[in-house]
Specification:
- It is a single chain.
- By secondary structure, the chain is of the alpha/beta class.
- It has 2 domains: 6-121, Response regulator (Rossmann fold); 164-247, Beta-Lactamase (2-Layer Sandwich), CATH 3.30.450.
- The protein is built from 8 helices and 8 strands.
- The protein has helices at 6-17, 29-38, 55-65, 80-89, 102-163, 182-188, 199-202, 205-211, and strands at 43-46, 70-75, 94-97, 168-172, 177-180, 216-222, 225-234, 242-247.
- Strand 4 and strand 5 form a beta hairpin.
- Helix 2 packs parallel to helix 3 (55-65).
Length: 253
Amino acid sequence: MVDDEENILSSLKRLLRRDGYRILTASGGEAGLEILAANAVDVIISDQRMPNMTGVEFLRRVKTLYPDTVRLVLSGYTEFQSITDAINEGAIYKFLTKPWDDEQLRASILEAFRIKALADENRRLSDELLLANQQLRVVLDEKQRQLQRDEVVLGIGQEILQLVPLPIIGLDDDDMVVFANAEADRLFGQGAPLIGSFAQAVLPPALLDIIGGAVGEHRWAQGGLDWPVNYQRIGFNAATQGRVLVLGPAARP
């Protein structure tokens, strides 16, 4: 509370002490600023007419330095224009007149503390939301970096498989070709891409029998050549599963 009349400060302290507030008093604006610099304050009540600095001038400075405080003017002088301007600027929350009604004054101060508590809670929630968004951004950025690394690894792996001089074919559970290297395209697609075709349309019956049977090592004879065939299921730890055929070097029986 800021007022240049000591008897006013004493009366206010007697009135408000029963409400459990920690009350700090100052006899002018400069003294009030010194108190604010050394103490955390929620609600400020200031007289309007004081030497050296009016209440409106004081509370304008308080708004700049301590914008989270709730500021009230309690005055017997009705300088409506300056007070109205200060209220419109947000420097003052409410104007109260002297002499005051005890219960009305207590209710206004209680309301000011409720507004302060609500504003503090809103700031806390905003800070938590900001922190959560920052943490989410960190996670998303790391996921993006991981995806980029996975794409690089996948691209390198596919390029390596394309260079393997043995036919390799990957099938999904619907028997669609989802991977075929260049050697598989040459052998079964006459150079055309096999990806997107169904196994029944591009693979010979003997290989269809293999993919319809047990996994493991098999043999496939074609055109006077004997091919070792390794048939396996893949994707046990993935959302989708499939099968892979790897044909070894052909030899004459």
